[in-house]
Design a protein that fits this description.
This protein is of the alpha+beta class and 958 residues long. The protein has 3 domains: 61-94 and 114-237, no CATH class; 275-656, Rossmann fold; 670-878 and 913-957, D-amino Acid Aminotransferase, Chain A, domain 1, CATH 3.30.470.30. The strands form 7 sheets. The chain has an 8-stranded mixed sheet with strand order 4-11-12-10-9-6-7-8, sandwiched between helices. Strands 16, 17, 18, 19, 20, 21 and 22 form a 7-stranded mixed sheet that branches. A 5-stranded mixed sheet has the order 14-31-27-15-23, covered by helices on one side. Strand 29 (891-896) and strand 30 (902-904) form a beta hairpin. Residues 352-566 form the RrmJ-type SAM-dependent 2'-O-MTase domain. It comes from Nezara viridula (Southern green stink bug).
């Protein structure tokens, strides 16, 4: 079996990574380095004859020790250099000239009368080397004078060295044919005699080789071994093929002892992978009773994957298994290095995210036109409207790479629900750096262990999701489950059958109508797996089996994409629940198994589905074989490197809309974040010294003396909000539980709160009382009056009531349904100033557990009492605009006091609405003291009585 498979690709630190590749070491090299390697290889091949290493017929490399004496070897090299240094320049030594040669002359003439002395050859060789260097310098000097001369000179001087004689003598001279014939004869002769050896030279070399003479005296014969009985080694010593620190003598079948030829033309590299949909045109749903009674096929457990050839070509399956088995004995380090150099998309890695799974989700989201982060109905209308959250579920997906990508794309506008095994494979929310984990909530089922096989956990997860999503379900679900199958990689599909089943079952349970589903699968060869795909094909409008570029091409990993869940697929969900209950009762170690859930003849009768599944398996199988061969070739030759890696990484990041920078945490301080938010709010009007000024703004107190001045214009510009304390403050969120409260001149840490990074809100801490008497409970909460920024998204510029909508939506995403450890955060409900009398009518005296009877106000939305300690008045229009009621048309209009222009409310300009900063500057505080009148106490001179305020407002309305 092979370890070339993929389990859940979760964390690069080791959790659920693709088996066994994980996140490899960096083996990047530039294209220039790659070209240098190719050129060096070409050079070594071209001058192979000059090397003491030669290739035998069996393809192995040997070192020639036939010249055993050091001096004889130097003689051989010296003589070789002597004949390779011939040139057309004048020389004291015998030379040849292409231009002056005659029909009877040989281009390789030399003086036979030369003394065969070793020193003579060495001296002549040195002289020829010097002259050769001088010739090259002269050629460079004359290169710019005549291009024709350069070409002629190069062809004349280099042709004898390169052996390309016929093409270098193509000039139309009278002697060209004869010269070409002479060169051809000499060329053949040189090939027969070993390039530099002639019979005379060979004799002189043997005569001068003392080692050879001594060996002959001892009885050595050419072609025989040394020793009394010629028992010595005859073949040259083979060049070592030792790789790294591997044990000596280890041989890997299929990888060692043979050269694997890699043909790059077999590999298809596409930035945009083709998407192949299979659409379901049958609107009739399957019957549960029929499926439960007739379709389940139980029998002995079958783990023989080699026989499962109904949905893949038999020869192709055999070839896949054979290719994967080659890597069984290869160490993970060696395999990882080969994979990292051979995979064109390897350097994409994890980018700014927690692990590689996040970029797989980014890859698939892009390939399917962002159908997950921007879902649409079948009529192409958006599934998530402006003031709604995107609900998603991440199942069997610890540590959470999929979710981090979605939250990165949607910020706090998405609410995630996670379900995975508790423990080592749990979600690592503290490591979410690219997206806000504060809007993500893990859930572990009724049993609390996150075991998706348990039917009780599946039912409780369904109930929890429906409670969070107001009974509608999530817009889409992601599943990336997998576990270690080391040593059993070839049957990973068979071992993962119940995991497939449960992930599909949960999707049919929690995905809303017309919602989507994506799930990781491996091979789809067995009847059980094919049946599962068939049922999902019947439950959704479209399905697609897809392998993203970000998934390593040599493994079996792929994904099923299901689009637009059909109405009325409850029968399929119930059938899958029934099968899982049966598997749960049988247990893992049972000899009896469910081998099929849809009869084979039913699958084959649907030709469109059957052909789609078989073609998909064959296509991915062929691609897998090509890349397995590529890995083997790259393992054999460590100089090979995929040159497109860096370019493809840059291009994919652009297409997937993922920032190309490194993964890093936000190290900014609290004040730096506050300044950044103010820059977003005020833009070019921002000055650093204004931050503390804005944070310390205090509203004017309402007293009898200034009521006419404050409300001298329209009271329709104002809203009133009850207060439960006398301390209004700013809260700044830096992510997770790093929340700070502004106190006079600095930020102080506030425990038991969670806010997304880049959040600035304005409100008060106050106690909430529930119940009566001894059962009464008190909880401290933070109530928001206004907001400036939510997750680095400025909301200050929106109209006041629109800001409140954003804040309520934000808190809905932030809410933890399964935990009571955090301080509650709520948005205060404002009351128009003209209706303040209705607010006073709700005030009552309530006995509080910590004190006597107090003036309280009951909140019917959240069912608690608050002690009423004052009110804040918020202006919602900006100067010089006023809001009035038209008596003629009985509707509101806006009046500009500077130019006298009037516009109906629906036509009001943007500048008529007060921003959060305007409202903060205009705010008025009315803190309750003795004399306000809620307890029937007499009036005080410097305290505004509630009845006086009501009369003033009624008078202004009229």
């Amino acid at each position: 079996m092979s370890n070339l498979s993929a389990s859940s690709d979760s964390s690069d630190e080791g959790s659920n990574s693709e088996m066994p590749f994980g996140d490899p070491e960096s083996h990047q090299s530039s294209d220039d380095n790659y070209l240098e390697v190719v050129e060096s290889e070409s050079a070594s091949m071209h001058y192979q004859d000059d090397s003491p290493y030669h290739s035998s017929q069996d393809g192995k490399t040997y070192q020639d020790y036939s010249l055993t004496d050091r001096n004889s070897q130097s003689v051989y090299e010296s003589t070789s250099h002597f004949y390779n240094s011939f040139s057309s320049e004048k020389s004291d030594e015998p030379s040849y000239s292409l231009n002056n040669s005659t029909k009877n002359s040989s281009p390789y003439q030399y003086n036979e009368s030369e003394q065969p002395l070793i020193t003579s050859f060495q001296e002549k060789s040195k002289k020829k080397k010097e002259k050769s260097r001088n010739n090259k310098l002269n050629k460079k000097k004359h290169a710019t004078n005549s291009k024709k001369s350069i070409n002629s000179t190069e062809s004349e001087s280099l042709a004898p060295l390169k052996g390309n004689y016929s093409t270098s003598l193509s000039d139309s001279s009278d002697n060209s044919d004869q010269i070409q014939s002479d060169y051809s004869k000499k060329d053949n002769k040189r090939k027969r005699k070993g390039y530099v050896e002639s019979s005379g030279l060979k004799k002189r070399l043997e005569a001068s080789n003392k080692g050879s003479l001594l060996m002959k005296k001892m009885g050595y014969r050419e072609g025989e071994g040394l020793g009394k009985h010629a028992q010595g080694r005859v073949e040259p010593v083979e060049l070592s093929n030792q790789k790294g620190r591997r044990g000596l003598g280890l041989s890997l079948p299929g990888l060692d002892g043979q050269t694997i030829e890699w043909d790059p033309s077999l590999e298809e590299i596409n930035e945009r992978e083709p998407v192949d949909w299979l659409e379901n045109f049958d609107i009739h749903m399957l019957n549960f009773e029929t499926m439960a009674e007739d379709w389940i096929n139980e029998g002995p457990k079958n783990l023989n994957i080699e026989t499962m050839t109904e949905f893949i070509d038999e020869e192709l399956l055999s070839n896949i298994l054979k290719k994967k088995n080659i890597f069984d004995n290869l160490s993970e380090d060696e395999l990882r290095r080969a994979v990292s150099r051979s995979n064109p998309f390897e350097t994409i890695r994890k980018g700014i995210f927690l692990n590689r799974a996040a970029l797989k989700m980014a890859n698939m989201d892009f390939a399917y036109d962002f159908m997950f982060t921007n879902p649409k109905y079948r009529d192409d209308s958006p599934m998530v409207r402006e003031n709604e959250l995107l609900y998603f579920a991440d199942v069997c997906a610890g540590p959470g790479g999929f979710s981090e990508y979605v939250l990165h794309r949607k910020n706090w506008h998405a609410k995630g629900i996670g379900f995975t095994l508790k423990g080592d494979n749990d979600f690592k929310l503290q490591d979410f750096l690219a997206g806000p984990s504060e809007t993500f909530e893990p859930y572990y089922g009724e049993k609390g262990d996150g075991n998706i096989f348990d039917p009780v956990n599946i039912s409780s997860l369904t109930d929890f999701v429906m409670r969070v999503t107001d009974g509608k379900g999530v817009h889409f679900m992601m599943a990336d489950g997998g576990f270690s199958v080391k040593g059993q990689e070839n049957i990973q599909e068979l071992l993962s059958k119940q995991l497939y089943l449960c992930q599909f079952l949960v999707a049919l349970s929690i995905v809303r109508e017309e919602g989507h589903f994506v799930c990781k699968i491996f091979d789809v060869f067995s009847e059980f797996s094919a049946g599962l795909i068939y049922l999902m094909y019947k439950a959704f409008n479209k399905i697609s089996i897809f392998k993203p570029n970000s998934s390593r091409p040599a493994n079996s990993e792929r994904y099923i994409i299901c689009k637009h869940k059909m109405r009325g697929c409850e029968s399929i969900r119930a059938y899958l629940f029934e099968i899982n209950s049966r598997l749960w009762n049988l247990g893992v170690n049972s000899e009896i198994d469910v081998n099929g859930i849809v009869p084979l003849e039913i699958i084959k009768d649907d030709l469109e589905f059957f052909n789609y599944l078989r073609d998909s398996n064959n296509r991915f199988g062929n691609k897998q074989i090509v890349n397995l061969d590529k890995i083997a070739a790259y393992y054999q030759d460590p100089n090979l490197h995929e040159r497109l890696q860096n370019k493809l990484r840059t291009r994919c990041m652009e297409l997937w809309k993922v920032p190309p920078g490194p993964r890093k945490a936000d190290q900014r301080s609290d004040m730096e974040v506050a300044k950044t938010i103010m820059q977003l709010i005020l833009k070019d009007k921002y000055r650093p010294q204004e931050v503390s000024v804005i944070l310390n703004l205090k509203g004017e107190n309402l007293v009898p003396e200034n009521i006419d001045k404050i409300f001298q214009y329209s009271i329709l510009d104002w809203n009133c909000i009850p207060l439960g304390s006398d301390k209004i403050c700013f809260l700044l969120g830096l992510g997770k539980n790093k929340v700070y409260r502004w106190v006079q001149t600095k930020w102080e840490y506030e425990p038991n709160l969670e806010l997304t990074p880049g959040t600035l809100i304005y409100g008060e801490f106050m106690p909430e009382y529930r119940g009566n008497g001894m059962k009464q409970t008190k909880v401290n909460a933070f109530h928001i009056i206004d907001g400036f920024s939510l997750g680095y998204e400025p909301i200050s510029h929106y109209p006041y009531y629109q800001r409140l909508e954003k804040l309520n939506l934000y808190l809905k995403a932030l809410k933890k349904w399964n935990s009571n450890n955090l301080c509650p955060i709520r948005v205060k409900n404002p009351t128009p100033l003209k209706d303040i009398y209705s607010l006073f009518e709700r005030v009552e005296e309530q006995l509080l557990k910590t004190s006597n009877y107090q003036t309280c106000l009951y909140d019917h939305d959240y069912n608690f009492y608050m002690q009423l300690k004052g009110m804040v008045f918020i202006r919602t229009t900006r100067e010089p605009w006023r809001r009035h009621l038209s008596k003629k048309y009985n509707c509101h209009y806006y009046y500009n006091s500077e130019n006298g222009k009037s516009l109906f409310e629906r036509d009001r300009p943007v500048e008529a609405d007060a921003s959060a900063l305007d409202s903060l500057k205009y705010q008025i505080l009315w803190m309750f003291q003795v004399g306000v009148g809620f307890k029937g106490e007499p009036r005080q001179d410097d305290v505004l009585h509630k009845d006086d305020l009501v009369r003033f407002i009624q008078k202004r309305i009229v």
